[in-house]
Amino acid sequence: MSKKRARRRKKRLPEDLVEVEITALSSEGRGIAHVDERTVFVDQALTGERVCFKYTRLTKSIAEGCAIEVLEASGSRVEPKCPAFKMCGGCSLQHMSSSAQIELKQDMLLDQLKHHGVRPDEVLEPLLGPEYGYRHKARLGVRYVHKKEKVLVGFRERHSSFITETERCEVLHPSVGEIIGEIAECISQLEQKRSIPQIEVAVGDDQTVLVFRHLEILPESDRKQLSDFCQSHSLVCYLQAGKPDALELLYPAQVAPLFYELPEEEVKIEFQPSDFTQVNPEINRRMVSNAIDYLALSEEDTVLDLFSGLGNFSLAMARRCSKVTAVEGSLAMVKKARDNALLNNIDNAEFIYADLYSDEVLRSPWIKQKFDKILLDPPRSGAAEILPALKKMKVKKIVYVSCHPATLARDAEVLVNTLGYRLSRAGIMDMFPHTGHVESIAVFEI
C-alpha cells in the first residue's frame, strides 16, 4: 500500500470531548485518567480534577489527550503566566502552583528510589531558585509560514514539529525572552528568511549570544540586518553554516568569550555557545557549593570526577583538596576544561579523555589510582557501566548529581545493594521550573 493511501486509511481521532476524573499524575506531570479500561494521559490536567479533554493520540496501546475545559479545579491549579502555555512545548507545568510542582518532583525521585528498594536516610530540602527568566541556554526553532506570511520563532508546539506562535517567552532570560516577536520580525525581513531553521541562545554572566544557523549563503543585506538588530539590542551575533563550533562572528567585530563564575569557589569558566552548560546559573552555583559541602573535602583528599565536562565541579573541588582527576567522554570538552584550569591558575586538576561507557575504561591507568571521594554527574543514561570499577576503589563518599531520577534510582540500587554503600541523603534541585524535568543530588557513604 502506498504511503498516500495509508494516510487516507489512518483512523481519525474522536472529535467529541470526553469527561473524566484525573486520578494521578504521570512522571511528566500529565493527568492520568481511565476511559473504556484504557489509561489516558491528559496534558494540562491535575490530580483530583474533573475535565473535558480531546484526544491528541489514540492507538491500541497509547491514549493521549489535552484538557479543553476544567469542570472541577484542583486547589493546586494557577493561571499560567505565559499566554502561549497551552500550545508551547517549552513548559508543561505552568498551570500548577510552584509548591505543588516541587512536591511532584520530590515524590517522583522518592518513588523511583523506593521502586528499586532504596531509601535515603535524609530527604534534603529542595534547592529552589528563580521561577521565570532562569533559562540561560536554549535552542529556538525558526520557520517561515507561507500561509501566515510570517516568521515564527520559539519552542515547538507540544507533541508537534510546528513552532509556537508567541511574542515572548517567560522562562528564557529577559534579554531574549522579552524580544521573541522582534527577533521573528527581523528574520521576516531577510531575503533568505526561509534558510534559517534555528537560533542557539547562550547567556553568560555579562553578555547574551545569538547564533543564527543558516542553510544558504546570506547576502550582505541580510548580514547587515542581523548585525544592526543585535547591535540595537546589545546582543552578540554569530552565524553558523556548518558544525556547531564553526562560528562566524558577525557583531561586534571583537568579543570576549562567554563565561560564568562560581564566586564561592573563585572559579571562572569560559565556554562556547554550543557547549553544554547548566541552563540555570543560580541553581548551578548553589549545586556546586552543596556538592562540595556534601563531599566534606579536606586538603589531603584526592577526588575522582566522572563525566566532568568543562570542569564545572572539578575546578571548584580543586580549590578545596589535594588533587582532582577529571574524566570526560568528549575530547573537545576535555581540552576546554584544561584551558579553564589554566585560566584559573589551577594546577592540581588532571583532565582525561575516556569513553565511560566502554569496557576499555576498566583497563585505564587512572582507574587503578587511589581516590578518597568521587563526584558523578552523568547524562540521562546514568552511570551503570562505570559502577563495577568503583567496587575496588572503596572510596568513603560518592556524590551523584542526576538529571533523570529513573537512572539514578537504578544506579543507587547497585551502589547500595551490591557495592555496600548507604544512601545518606537525597533531594531535588529545581533546575527547570514549570517542566517535568527533575534534577537531583544523592550522597552515598560507606
Describe this structure as you would to a colleague:
The structure is a single chain. With 446 residues, the chain is an alpha/beta fold. The chain folds into three domains: 3-77, Nucleic acid-binding proteins (OB fold (Dihydrolipoamide Acetyltransferase, E2P)); 104-130 and 279-445, Rossmann fold (3-Layer(aba) Sandwich), CATH 3.40.50; 137-203 and 208-255, OB fold (Dihydrolipoamide Acetyltransferase, E2P), CATH 2.40.50. 23% of the residues lie in helices and 28% in strands. It has helices at residues 3-9, 98-115, 174-177, 180-188, 220-232, 281-295, 314-318, 331-343, 387-393, 405-417; strands spanning 18-21, 24-25, 31-35, 38-43, 50-58, 63-72, 122-123, 137-145, 150-154, 198-203, 208-213, 236-240, 247-251, 258-262, 267-271, 302-306, 323-328, 349-353, 373-376, 397-402, 422-429, 439-445. It has an eight-stranded mixed β-sheet, sandwiched between helices. Strand 5 and strand 6 (63-72) form a beta hairpin. Helix 2 (98-115) runs parallel beside helix 10. The longest helix has 18 residues, at 98-115. The model is unreliable at 4-9 (pLDDT under 50).
Entry keywords:
Rossmann fold; 446 residues; OB fold (Dihydrolipoamide Acetyltransferase, E2P); 6-stranded mixed β-sheet; 8-stranded mixed β-sheet
Structure summarized in a few sentences:
With 446 residues, the chain is an alpha/beta fold.
What does the secondary structure layout of this molecule look like, with pairings?
Elements: H1 3-9, E1 18-21, E2 24-25, E3 31-35, E4 38-43, E5 50-58, E6 63-72, H2 98-115, E7 122-123, E8 137-145, E9 150-154, H3 174-177, H4 180-188, E10 198-203, E11 208-213, H5 220-232, E12 236-240, E13 247-251, E14 258-262, E15 267-271, H6 281-295, E16 302-306, H7 314-318, E17 323-328, H8 331-343, E18 349-353, E19 373-376, H9 387-393, E20 397-402, H10 405-417, E21 422-429, E22 439-445
Parallel strand pairs: 4-6, 7-21, 11-12, 16-17, 16-19, 17-18, 19-20
Antiparallel strand pairs: 1-5, 2-3, 3-4, 5-6, 8-9, 8-10, 10-11, 12-13, 14-15, 20-22, 21-22
Helix pairs in contact: 2-10
